[in-house]
Description:
Structural class: alpha/beta
Shape: globular
Number of domains: 1
Number of strands: 9
CATH architecture: 3-Layer(aba) Sandwich
Largest sheet: 7 strands, parallel
Distance between the termini: 22 Å
CATH class: Alpha Beta
CATH superfamily: P-loop containing nucleotide triphosphate hydrolases
Amino acid sequence: MSVRANQVSSGENLVMLSDPRSPAAEAYRTLRTNIQFSSLDKPVRTLLVTSARPNEGKSLAVANLALTFAQMGSTVALVDADLRRPALHFLFGLSNETGLTSFILNAGKASNNGKATGQIPFTLSDIPNLKLLTSGPLPPNSAEVLGSSRMSELIDRLKDEADYVLFDAPPVLALTDAAVLATKVDGTLLVLKAGKTSRDDAREAKEQLQKVRANLLGVVLNEVKQGNAKYRY
């Protein structure tokens, strides 16, 4: 079952915090509901958010979506898996000294019978129910990091820590990172920007995800001009 496309305005901030009664905030709540009902037999607990090309609003989309889950009382782990151009620490005004790559590097040192036992280096925030795992120091081989067995162990650990785990991944057409990580999660959302993303790029991004058998739940369409519509959903 697919999630229907949602018209989401990305804006320049986290609307779920700055303007929670706005049409954009309501659109994110609708998106959250769609995700929850997208697969009733197998609930989506781990979700990857990517885009076709850079600068299409994926980081703002996943951050606001994570906030909607946290605001309804669910524990959320928000992970910056964009190991080329991380942005979540900027959005939340937090440090990026340690993060995902720190855990991957240290997992072998703190292993027990081949399983990583070290603590996950979440960056502290004052937002209830939200745990943020920033990217950490950027590696030279991001696709290998995301495709590693230690990354799979981290995902398992995150599922023990939170009700929902959301990943911000690099654009599909720029790198292989998103396709690699998409094979490890329950579902994937593709963010497209109205007036910027071409039909060819959208189609190719979809095909790239389908090639690795990613569970593509649907599309988030942002920067849509509302016009003079009577009802602005």
